[in-house]
TrEMBL record:
InterPro entries xref list: Xyl_isomerase-like_sf, Xylose_isom_bac, Xylose_isomerase
Family the entry assigns: Belongs to the xylose isomerase family.
Cofactor: Mg(2+)
Provenance organism: Pedobacter heparinus (strain ATCC 13125 / DSM 2366 / CIP 104194 / JCM 7457 / NBRC 12017 / NCIMB 9290 / NRRL B-14731 / HIM 762-3)
Record-level GO cellular component terms: cytoplasm
Cofactor note text: Binds 2 magnesium ions per subunit.
Gene: xylA
Residues annotated for Mg(2+) 1 binding in this entry: 238, 274, 302, 345
NCBIfam families in the record: PRK05474.1, xylose_isom_A
Protein name per UniProt: Xylose isomerase
Keywords: Carbohydrate metabolism, Cytoplasm, Isomerase, Magnesium, Metal-binding, Xylose metabolism
Length: 442
């Protein structure tokens, strides 16, 4: 990446963040993330493909339901919409470059403020797309994926693609078209559909079957447009169970896979999974990863965490080494992410108000994933982890167990086998041993 000059710096006094190793006491250095280090046959940067979240890092102002902004950004000072958007993009690429983040992701309305005039919104996005293209060329930072915000505006209070009013759906389509145009122009590697309000609050006023059919038709239409205009990347669906709607149609990985299969969308779509969304669905992140991996649909992830004492999407930076290590075991065994990367869809806390706090947050997140990658590879290469799991299912590898997997046993055959063999032997699942194994390698 090209280093930016000190002219018009937004993060003054903070230089290039580099790898210094585990012995360093420098809080503005990586202890584990060494992008060129080879792990499991690939460079660390190729495994992890980190991306910065444009919305949280450069738009999130610390507002919560009980108070106004606490993060007052210097790039928000100008009155003119486009001047302000360009300042924000200058700050974003300064940060991305100093952090050695190879990718970024955006919603359309994060790049530049949108109003209610579609043509004016498209004009603004085109100007900012050209500006971003120059920034990408200058720095080497690339676009991992783009998306459209179809949930914040009041018109989307009942959804966008699933809205009962066709007029609202058409506005959502206009936004998606512009966001796809920008993604294609910026050589974005993927495009995400995040259904922030694609669901319902009450079935009393909802035709659920019709709404899901509309959502499928909307996705097919957007996909066809993108392919026609040269988009070669992957489309992602990001599951989320609730908040703000009571029940969303993209509830979890299994629900989305069923939807994609039912409406013939599997060929173009994969899943973009988020830790905190898994929590809200009552799952672990590892569960969601495994569901997607087993289906060959593990595309990308949003890295964050929730708060066990809060029942909403707090989007904190990841710091649980056990959770991330177990997640990396699944990702490695699945052969890695398919097309995507690791986007830090996470925000610094409301009371973290120093410019350096954004750096500390990303350094910690990148280090935790790098450490987990190294640990997971060591577990797979040198421990009994895979052997124990294989032995647990050994009865299906030969004889009648194998015949059952191959579909050659009837229900009568299974009954006769049970009679002949008598009561099964009790076999330990060794859960505590495996939990200790993870800790031993960490």
């Amino acid at each position: 990446m090209t280093k930016l000059t000190a002219d018009n710096e937004y993060f003054k006094g903070i230089g290039q963040i580099s790898f210094e190793g585990q012995e360093t006491d420098n809080p503005l250095a990586f202890r584990w993330y060494n992008p060129e280090q080879v792990v499991a046959g690939k460079k660390m940067k190729e495994h992890l493909r980190f991306a910065g979240a444009y919305w949280h890092s450069f738009c999130g102002n610390g507002t919560d339901p009980f108070g106004g902004p606490t993060h007052i950004f210097p790039w928000d000072a100008k009155a003119d919409v486009l001047d302000r958007a360009k300042d924000k993009m200058d700050a974003a690429f300064e940060f991305l470059t100093k952090m050695n983040l190879p990718y970024y992701c955006f919603h359309d309305v994060d790049v530049v403020d949108y109003g209610n005039d579609i043509k004016e919104n498209e004009r603004r996005m085109q100007i900012m797309t050209d500006y971003a293209k120059a920034k990408q060329a200058e720095t080497g930072v690339k676009l991992l994926w783009g998306t459209a915000n179809l949930f914040s505006h009041r018109r989307y209070m009942n959804g966008a693609a699933t809205n009962p009013d066709f007029h609202v759906l058409s506005h959502g389509a206009a936004q998606v078209k512009a966001a796809l145009d920008a993604t294609i122009a910026l050589n974005g590697e993927n495009y995400v559909f995040w259904g922030g309000r694609e669901g319902y609050m009450s079935l009393l006023n909802t035709n659920m079957k019709r709404e899901q059919e509309h959502l499928a038709k909307f996705l097919h239409t957007a996909k066809d447009y993108a392919r026609k205009n040269g988009f070669k990347g992957t489309f992602f669906i990001e599951p989320k169970p609730c908040e703000p709607t009571k029940h969303q149609y993209d509830y979890d990985a299994a629900t989305v896979l069923g939807f994609l299969r039912q409406y013939d969308l599997l060929g173009d779509f994969k899943l973009n999974l988020e830790v905190n969304h898994a929590t809200l669905a009552g799952h672990t992140f590892q569960h969601e990863l495994q569901v997607a991996a087993d289906a060959g649909m593990l595309g990308s992830i949003d890295a964050n965490r929730g708060d066990e004492q809060n029942g909403w999407d707090t989007d904190q930076f990841p710091n649980n080494i056990n959770e991330v290590t177990e997640s990396m075991l699944i990702i490695l065994e699945a052969g890695g992410l398919q097309g995507g990367g690791i986007n830090f869809d996470a925000k610094i806390r409301r009371n973290s108000t120093d410019p350096a706090d954004l750096f500390h947050a990303h350094i910690g997140g990148m280090d935790i994933f790098a450490r987990a990658l190294i640990t997971a590879d060591r577990i797979l290469q040198h421990s009994e982890y895979k052997k124990i799991r294989a032995e647990r299912y050994a009865s299906y590898d030969s004889g009648k167990g194998k015949a059952f997997e191959e579909g050659s046993l009837s229900l009568e055959d299974l009954r006769d086998y049970a009679v002949a063999q008598g009561e099964p032997q009790t076999i330990s699942g060794k859960q505590e041993f495996l939990e200790n194994l993870i800790n031993r390698y960490i």
